[in-house]
Amino acid sequence: MEYRDLEASLPAAQDKFAIRCRDVCRSYGKLKVLTNLNLTVPQGQIYGLLGPSGCGKTTLLKCIVGTLKISRGHITVLGKPPAFPGHEVPGKMVGYMPQELALYNEFTISDTLTFFGQIHGLTSKETRARMDFLIDFLHLPQKHSLVRNLSGGQRRRVSLGAALLQNPELLILDEPTVGVDPVLRAKIWQHLVEIVKTGKVSVIITTHYIEEARQANVVGLMRNGHLLAEGPPDALMKQHSATALSKVTQSVNSVKHHIGELVTDYFVCFWCSVDWKARARHILPKGRNIGALIIKTMVRMKRMPGSLCFQFLLPVIQISLICLCVGGDPKGIKVAVVNNDTASPISSFSLSLLSFLDNSSVIQVPVPHNEAFEGVYNGEYWGVIGFGENFTSYLTKRILQRQVSKEVIDGGSVHVWLDLTNRQIGLMLQKQLHQAFQHKVKQSPLWSFPQFEEPIYGSLNMDFTTYVTPGAVLSISFYLAVGLTALSFVLERKEGLLDRCWVAGVSSMETMLAHLFSQLFVISVQIILMLLFILLVFKMPNEGSLFLVICLIVLQGVTGISFGLVISAGIDDEQSANQAALGIFYPNLILSGIIWPVECIPYPLRYLSLVLPQTYASEALRCIMYRGWGITEMMVWRGFAFTLGWNTFFLILATVILKLRT
Ligand SMILES: Nc1ncnc2c1ncn2[C@@H]1O[C@H](COP(=O)(O)OP(=O)(O)OP(=O)(O)O)[C@@H](O)[C@H]1O
Fold first, then answer.
1. 65, 217, 576, 599 — which has fewest CB within 10 A?
2. Which residue has the higher pLDDT, 603 or 454?
């Protein structure tokens, strides 16, 4: 066969074509994957794309469906560039089967086809009819079988079924017959040959099987990111075997150049002719798609009841652990008491003083002097409380006389030696002794400590737990939302589900909104349970509006979702996403004044602390709950304003990263 024959067998420029790629270039970083690639898929034909592994076939298909942007060149799919406003590519006109399985494992076969049917706007009757046909045609098991229980080959067939579902005008199939037995493979090809016969359906299919490609109407040979040759399989195979491949390439390139001249400026005119209504429809999120995605999330949750319960209960467990274990006074601390006071038990000040010590916190162990210190050195006791022989009489002298000797002062004092390696226990013992002394002194008409009146805000016995809880609640809502969002998006993208939904016509905005709405349901249940526990079980005070409290916690959850989107937009694998979420967890927790007051943070760091998402929000929540303040107070609205500001920033950042990375 001469080159001329090959030239004649290629579609003429004026013929209708389903896909046309001209001078397409695409790189991943510095790696050039597609270089000046030209390819034409004629209307109503099967185009077999052949090439060694790694030559760029999948990348090309992704560029054709629009999930990857090209760096140079033009692509036209069914008359318009992919993702052109008002064009149904991505959308109903195209059926895409990616190389990955891209199926929801918790779905049944029926759920899977119903989901894609909903997105394509099929009625339930149409979906049922197509489902019955595809289950029979693709030899699929029962429609109620779960995808995760299917074999590899069965899953690939479900994936192919999802691509064929809406009878698209263009089928883009990335190695659909891998793992499919020869009989079914022949049947699939027969089906493809039949559907293109109408002239309305076109197919582009990648395969490694040369004998399969023979059934295509046109075959493209790809190597190192460009097309070596393109033509009817027999002509191309003969040519390929008869002459050097380079000559074929030259010939085909000259034909393509000829065609190329006839289609100049074809692409540019599109943008001028788009009316604003089509643009608006293209941009505005569709309720149908959002609804399908929300139902998808609900079905998945229903199929994973253990995981759902865990999601609901995890915040309650976390906040309960904080309320139970953080900030309370240590209990059962053993202290050695060396009481040498010789006064009678009735008049003894030392015994009276010791009786005021809280016995649940401090266990007094009366021991002689040597044993007491020995016990502290051995770690048996946390301290020694010592009273001298003349403690009661010297103390009485100190109370009654204006001037006393140093010996009286010393002998009338309680001596305490503490093991301060654990600061909290040390501080608690100091506090207990001061309180006991205060109680004792209150009985004396001569002595007076400052009298602390009922506090203006808070209560006299407000503990550290009360301080920590509001910030902890915000932090838990924020980080659970970050984790769930980042993980679910990263996994869905890795498994090709995001791309598949996108090609089916679901926009990124719809995906985000659907995630937000379904996550809001989870967040709401989490918040209700957390509030029930902190207010009713742990009796945290709430002087302010419960509505404001809920709003602020929900907004922090939404900020967590937005931050999760940033992580999933920038990171491709779940391990790195987890590391990113965990990596910022502790610095943020410590710098936001949740565990320890911001006022303790040294200055350069304090500026950083003040701009973090939870610093002002925690302060606002404390002000609402403990001071009963409303939204008009600066410290409250500032918390809301910062939360909303971060939310907007994260959403914009996620969108920008996504745009830059496609
Ligand atoms: N996300 C990515 N980031 C960086 N490089 C990538 C990415 N995806 C693909 N590549 C690289 O681009 C090249 C082309 O990959 P592609 O998947 O398009 O090949 P292919 O022809 O479809 O291979 P196969 O037949 O094995 O599926 C390969 O070298 C691959 O390593």
1. 599
2. 603
